[in-house]
Amino acid sequence: MSQNQLKTKSGRFLKNTLVAIAVALAFIGGYYFATLRSHLPTETVSAQSGNDTIHRESEKTQLWTCSMHPQIKLPNPGKCPICFMDLIPLESHDHGDEYAGATQYSMSETAKKLAEVETTSVKRERAFVKVRMVGQVYEDETRVAALTSRVDGRLDEIYINFTGVHVDKGDPMVTIWSPTLIKSQVELFETMRTGEEEESVIKGAVEKLIQYGLTREQVKEIREKKKPILNVTLRAPISGVVTKKMALLGQFVKEGTEMYIINDLSNVWIKMDAYETDLPWIRYGQKVTFTTPAVPGRTFEGRVLFIDPMLDTKTRSVKVRVAAENPDFTLKPGMFVTAEVEAEIDAKGKVIKREWAGKYVCPVHPRDEASPVPGICPESKMALRPASSFGYSDDPNPEMPLVIPSSAALVTGKRAVVYVEVPGERPTYEGREIILGPRADDKYAVYDGLSEGDRVVTKGNFKIDSAMQILARSSMMNPGESKPVSEAAGKEEVISKLTVPEPFLKQLTPVIETYLSLKESLVRADSSEAAKAATQLTEKLKAVSTTGIDKKAAGTWNKLSRTISARATMLAATQEIDKQRKAFDPLSETFAKMVMGFRHVMSGPLYLYNCPDAFDGAGAYWIEAKQEPHNPFFGDIRLKERSMLGCGDLAETIPPEFGPQAAKEDSAGNTPGARHEHGGGK
Ligand SMILES: [Zn+2]
Ligand SMILES: [Zn+2]
Ligand SMILES: [Zn+2]
């Protein structure tokens, strides 16, 4: 893209028409083109060409790709991590267009210290993917009994008058007056009188009474008293809770009439909803821990018993049934629970259950014990099945996955980038696109792109990434210069910082304030205020004059402000909060890089926050004026998703320039890399 083209395009953009938006999009394409990270789909990006001047490759390396999955671009030959086909060499003219290859950034030891760059070694270690589910307690459907009348008769007494009552096996439930029962008792006395010797006849009469619902104790009593009982008491067949009462005083019941339903709640089921995206980690037999707001402070345990093979297409969720013991009856049907399953994974992302590896298990008794040989479960009489048939790895010595701290991965859309420390005279970092596995607690599993022992940047990586983009922009405006990135940085006090005079930074204050009010509108899910603030943001950006700042900084400013404006225009064009938030994600990221590159003269520091869970785990960045995250990427805080409001990891503290706080760069109290946790409601 030549300077002339740039001028033409920016001229059109200022007309603020639909055409201008399209052109602006092309700009963003060109802008992200030069970078490792892109919010735009590959198609948009690859439509661009002729951006050679902005490439910063210190060396040309052969890359390998998959003919079926062109997004795969790896430094070494091998198998495609998605389909396991052999990789083919990537054509050199493609090379570097979307993938910047060995893009390196180096800085002085002082700059490294000021930027607070920290690295850690890539390791193989046990990794547990945590899946959260919500659900409700239900009765175990295999532990339900009905008290049914086995004779015709009249209910003369009702002992259990309402549902919810706990009864023990044998407790009286009703008394029944039944001519059939009286007749059967009389028959028993007759057999006793006439044939003392004929035990089998007596036995037949006794069994008849038991068939009619009397207990052996009751029959014994009748035999001893030798007098028929007119009103016979019917007793609870099992211990449990009465969940249904149909019996009415004075009611005539027939043989087969159900009078009560009793649930044995010493074991319960939890019916959970699992998201489609979490299904790869849920397996029969996994231990589930859960809590309920009804019993604060206590954690319960269960086992996955059944995973519904059908997906609810409306909610994109699947029912997961968990069996839990409930010996003290604390769990009651209807209680809401929040549950967590931990799936251990191996290097390829296969789920592991060490106790079961290569063994056979009962399909209805999910216990840790497993049989080394096939057989039959003595309780269920069902054939044992190989654990692998439930989706577990069969390997008794599974290879542990490569893991990196989650703060090391910069995730945007489908891509993930890490900065790896490479040997050099000065601290040097190389941007690498990697294939991420699932998130495991505060770590990510890595399927490809890193090796054991590589040192990845865990802190300061956003700064390095932002420096790469800002400096690439500078060089684009000055195509004659092609110095190594670190030298182009000029003054190296803080990496990526451009030196601009105070009056310029003063102009940024209203821009930052408008950004903050736009962000707060999104926190409140107020789409009409957000649209207004976005329009204001484009106006405030336009009002900034680059008079008095050097050509390089002016060029960088123009590029960044156009990108932010284009996104703000898109945001303002819709009233749908979800679309606004999608537009805000790249806007906010570019805005953050702008603030980090130019700095500011606000009254206090600004804070860069990251929520790695936004956009299905792609993550998102935003700027706060206070050291307290107000997450703009999740639901309406006035409603139920309140707990997401406070969700955010502090990634950087950006102190003001020229003010009293200006020198506090390296003591600003950053706490990035802290464990990211949801549900800490504010
Ligand atoms: Zn493939
Ligand atoms: Zn069994
Ligand atoms: Zn979050």
Automatic annotation (TrEMBL):
Residue span(s) of domain DUF3347: 511-600
Entry GO CC: outer membrane-bounded periplasmic space
A single BP term in Gene Ontology: plasma membrane copper ion transport
GO molecular function: transition metal ion binding
Residue intervals of the Heavy metal binding domain: 64-89, 359-386
InterPro entries, per the entry: Beta-barrel_RND_2 (IPR058792), BSH_CusB (IPR058790), DUF3347 (IPR021782), HMBD (IPR045800), MFP_Cation_Efflux (IPR051909)
Chain spans, region Disordered: 655-682
Coiled coil stretches, renumbered: none
Domain CusB-like barrel-sandwich hybrid: 145-263
Keyword terms: Membrane, Transmembrane, Transmembrane helix, Transport
Pfam family, one: HMBD
Domain CusB-like beta-barrel: 267-343
Transmembrane segments: 12-34
PANTHER family in the cross-refs: CATION EFFLUX SYSTEM PROTEIN CUSB (PTHR30097:SF15)
Family: Belongs to the membrane fusion protein (MFP) (TC 8.A.1) family.
Protein name: Membrane-fusion protein
Protein species of origin: Desulfomonile tiedjei (strain ATCC 49306 / DSM 6799 / DCB-1)
